[in-house]
Amino acid sequence: MKQEFVGIVALAGVVSAQAGLSVADQNEITRTRCAVCHTDAKPLGGLSLEHFDAANPDPAIARMMLVKIKDDGAINAAGKPMPPADVYDAFVNALASYAARPPADPRWTVELAAYPGRGHPVVTARAAFASGSVVFTCNGATRHAAITPVDKAEGASAAIDFDGLSPTVRAIFSWCLTPAATK
Fold it and tell me: Are 54 and 30 in contact (CB under 8 A)?
């Protein structure tokens, strides 16, 4: 009976390994392939991935990472060769599963439009509130942000509630709204 139990545990480990990457492996890929360029000190496009944690991923950030990796080939941006196909596929599948999760605040949707080969994405965040709707747009190429209130409810205050965006997505828009330092 004991041998049978050990065999089942070993088989479960093999099936788990084939199903995808561990959280530790996902974090290692993010650290060595993504956070190399997206640091706190120099957040490329306003995005820092130094604190990304696959154990508790932000669906919006996972969605942006997925677009950049699949549509823009950013998995090689740090100068490393393409990972083995099974590792790449497992990482993409993990990001896709995180991206499919509902946002922490259901009022917000966050999207990324990549421009393959150019690395200049446009991030868009949309939300609907009682006081109206808002659209944030950040163009990473020009470091230009636009905040557009739409469908403002009659008699509502001019203030739009920007709470609910994740700290990482807020940082992207903060970066976009801050003029670039001149040399």
Answer: yes
